[in-house]
Amino acid sequence: MEDLIQIGITLFVLLVGYFVGSTLERNHFKSIRNRERASRRMMVLTIEDIPSDWQSQDAGLVTGNAVVSLDYFKRFLAGIRAIFGGRIKSYEPLLDRARREAVLRMKQAALDKGYTAVINMRMETSRLASATKKGKSTAGVEILAFGTGVKLAK
Amino acid sequence: MDISNTETIPGKSIVSYYGLVSGSTVRAKHVGRDIMASFKNIVGGELKGYTELLQESRTEALDRMIAQAKSVGANAVVNVRFSTSSVAQGAAELFAYGTAVQVQ
Amino acid sequence: MEVHHRLPDDSVNVSDTHPLKEAATLVLGMLVLSTVVFIGIAFFVELAVPLIPIEMEAKFFGAGWGSVTSEMEEEEIRQAEEVQALLERLAAHWPENPYQYEVGIIPGPPNAMALPGGRILVTSELLALAESENELAFVLGHELGHFHDRDHLRMLGRGVLFSLVLATTGLGDSNTTSLLSLGGTLSDRSFSRDQECDADRFGLELVTREYGYAAGSDAFFHRIQKMEQEGLVIQFAATHPLSDSRIDFLRETSDEMHWEWDGPLLPPIAKPSTPSESDPE
């Protein structure tokens, strides 16, 4: 009987995690796509210097970050997947979202400072250990995108 | 598709820039490999299973990045960087990113 | 030098498997895995149990028995002695009996348990509610059946090994563990059902040899059945086959072996002197 209640609660949380999580994910992807389209004139490059035939008037560091966490349903899937091994599909959309969000925020920061492109962009990913459970589980993942914003004049 | 981690593709010149392209994959090794690795940790040395797994995943991340570069019409990716991070217990993310360009 | 403002294909970094499909595959795989692991452990235990000498049982698994005997009141000690006398009469019909028995009485709903080293726990409510000696005799015979097959060691071995495997392989994540142990519990249940049937058969045989007939053997199950219907006992069904099928099983076995069923019921023994206290009615 107690087992049944336990399983019931877990199932309920799983379902809530799945429905709310996938709705949020869909909306976030939509918003990311819209903003990417709007900001696509801002060039982001990983090369270290601007091409020789361009000129820059101004330069400075710009950053953007995003911390994300899996929903309960996806964490459940990831937990089982870790036993069998293989591609953890449930993590992919999450990291994709976080990375694009971080880049968009970096672009926004560059735009706010009047830059027209970002060069030498780098990305960092770090896991934030949870304060509970002796740091064994994950509180979230931070993605940091940073680069040098430049104001180009041709 | 030319891939490099330098500013340009040596011997060629860049004619146009397409911007950032990236590829990523998240993988976990199965429990059997984990257990074998924990035994291997006692004596040290190469963990062959992990070497293979990470290399395989890195290739996949690179392939995904190349697919993005193709989708914008580029024929080379310069200044490619890799980053490997442990996003959860037992799971590693392999990420590759670079600048998509057209070279001649 | 030109710059193209095109957006790259954003679908390449995300696999397009539906999460629910992925979930179904994984959960199914998990249940299969845990069942396979459990059956593997069970076979190992089957091989290992006969190798453990009887004397070692009490030495290694006997911890905690002292607290049971020290908590028994004077009256319970008297009851335990009466139960033990009956138990030894039954055990006399099992010629190769290797155990020295010891009976302990604990509070709780009607039940009895076989512990390693020939220890048997009987609950006070079982004694208070028993309406005949025959009813109690069958319950004790059933526990002797567990000793005969050394089921207590099997159960213990399976439980300990299964948790050990879970702990050492690092499958300790709370979500996956609950799923794994669900698979384990389901397999354990089918194992323990077979064990219960064997023990029932053995108990029935001892009772028939002692009294010459098996009357009253099913009284305990009738009582549990009634209590289950009234919602008084629920946990019993979790580890034991349903009372209905066990009653049928007893009757069928008795008929098959051409054992006598009907006979007079003897007055109950080891009754508490103040029955109203522990009697739920």
Detailed description of the structure:
The complex is a heterotrimer of chains A (154), B (104) and C (281). Chain A has helices at residues 2-38, 72-84, 91-112, and strands spanning 43-44, 55-68, 86-87, 117-129, 138-153. With 154 residues, chain A is of the alpha+beta class. Chain A has one domain (2-153): Hypothetical protein apc22750. Chain B (Translation Initiation Factor IF3). In chain A, helix 1 packs across helix 2 and helix 1 runs parallel beside helix 3. The longest helix of chain A is centred in the N-terminal third of the chain and has 37 residues, at 2-38. Chain A is elongated, with a radius of gyration of 20 Å. Chain B has a single domain (2-103), classed as 2-Layer Sandwich (Translation Initiation Factor IF3). Chain B has a four-stranded mixed beta sheet. The longest helix of chain B has 25 residues, at 48-72. Chain B is elongated and about 55 Å long. The model of chain B has no long low-confidence stretch (mean pLDDT 88). Chain C is mainly alpha-helical and 281 residues long. In chain C, strands 2-4-3 form a three-stranded mixed beta sheet, with helices on both faces. The radius of gyration of chain C is 25 Å and the shape is elongated. Chains in contact: A-B, A-C, B-C. At the A-B interface, strand 1, helix 2, strand 3, helix 3 and strand 4 of A face strand 2, strand 3 and strand 4 of B. Strand 2 (14-28) of chain B pairs parallel with strand 1 (2-3) of chain C.
List the strand order in the largest sheet of chain C. Answer: 2-4-3
The 3D shape of chain C can be described as elongated
Radius of gyration of chain C: 25 Å
The low-pLDDT segments of chain B are none
Report the total helices of chain C.
12
Count of beta strands of chain C: 4
Could you spell the SSE succession of chain B in H and E letters? EEHHEE
Helix content of chain B: 25-40%
The CATH architecture assignment of chain B turns out to be 2-Layer Sandwich
Q: Do you know the CATH topology of chain B?
A: Translation Initiation Factor IF3
